Amino acid sequence: MDTVLDLFENPMVVKLAKLVMWILFIILSIGFIRKILKKRIENISVRYKAQKGIEVIGYVLIIFLILMAVTVDSFKDYTIIIGLFTAGITFTLQELILSIAGSFYIFFVRVYKPGDRIEINNIKGDVIDIDSIYTTIMEMGEWVSSDNYSGRIVKISNAFVFKGPIKNYSMDFPFVWDELNILITYGSDTTLAKKIVLNSAIELLSEYTEKSKVKWKEMVERYYIENATLEPTMAINLTDNWIQLNLRYITDYKRRRNTKHTLFEHIVQAILNTNGKVNLASTTLQLLPIPPIDITLKK
Q1: Which of 51-65, 96-110, 249-263 has the lowest average pLDDT?
Q2: What is the pLDDT of residue 192?
Q3: Which pLDDT score, from 0 to 100, does residue 40 have?
Q4: Strand partners, 208
Q5: Are 141 and 150 in contact (CB under 8 A)?
Q6: What is the reported pLDDT for 50?
Q7: Strand 149-157 to 175-184 pairing
Q8: CB atoms within 10 A of CB 33
Q9: Mean residue pLDDT across the chain
Q10: What is the number of helices (H) and of strands (E) in the chain?
């Protein structure tokens, strides 16, 4: 009993106990304030930013308290113990520490934010939440074609921002280049076909082209990057079976699938209206009949 009393009278133990109690108080306060903000603030964007701001302030306070405790004069005789303890904690919780550091890195460097479409650790989707440990993503792809949600919500450790590339579809330039191929027969009017495809692209994508020019100008001013062709372009490729018209164009990163569908519909209808001057090609197989065989048997 005397040993226990002596332990609680030890200044270092008392200070450690106070530190733990303050940390618990801050964590509980963060949760309490987050609940109040959730009830009081109706705007989703403002509420989200306010909750994240409270989290960041709370963690900064915890780090400040720990630093103050470690640098107090009464702890100077215990530097070896504290060093070993810190090293053990760091080794054991290295993934957790990396995740917390990653959350600060994401917040201050603005690697991505909620609403961005990213690909990280070979997982693509829209960011729907970022907390102190995980980034939550609404997954795309897998068994679903094109840029459609699979329905799965994926949590990725924030530590991955230090471990590999992060592909952001929407951070500074919310447009992507895409391509589609139109196949026509060798007897078709190639000049007319090119005109149909290019005119359709220019007509349907003019809004994206103009908006992307403004964004690209900002990109050129901010980054070391050359200017790029943002208008629809055409390339022709000759194959053994058909002429391939390759259209390259720019579109909004969220409307890639819908844009391709609209373009195909418009171009196919325009080709059908040429009354046979341009014909869509497809693989054709010709089956030749086996010639009759006359067999005469002689005794």
Answers
A1: 51-65
A2: 92
A3: 75
A4: none
A5: yes
A6: 73
A7: unpaired
A8: 16
A9: 81
A10: 7, 8
Phi-psi region of 276 (alpha: psi -120 to 50; beta: other; left: phi over 0): left
Which phi and psi (to 5°) does residue 253 adopt? Answer: -60, -25
Q: Whole-model pTM? A: 0.63
The pLDDT tens digits of the residues spanning 278-299 come to 988 877 666 777 777 777 777 6
φ, ψ (nearest 5 deg) of residue 178: -140, 165
What gap in Å lies between CA 108 and CA 91, rounded to an integer? 25
- The C-alpha atoms of residue 248 and residue 181 are separated, in whole angstroms, by 9
CB 212 within 8 A of CB 230: yes
| Long-range contacts, stretch 151-158, CB < 8 angstroms, 24+ apart | 153/128, 154/123, 154/125, 156/120, 156/121, 156/123, 157/95, 157/98, 157/99, 157/102, 157/133, 158/98, 158/99, 158/100, 158/101, 158/102, 158/103, 158/105, 158/106, 158/130, 158/132, 158/133, 158/134
Structure tokens belonging to residue 263: 């373009």
Please give the DSSP secondary-structure letter assigned to residue 110.
Answer: T
Pair 109, 95: CB distance under 8 Å: no
Q: Are 194 and 235 in contact (CB under 8 A)?
A: no
How far is the C-alpha of 249 from the C-alpha of 90, rounded, in Å?
50
Other Cβ atoms within 10 Å of 241 Cβ, number: 13
CB–CB of 127/115 below 8 Å? yes
Question: If we measure between CA atoms, which residue out of 199, 174, 179 comes closest to residue 249?
Answer: 179
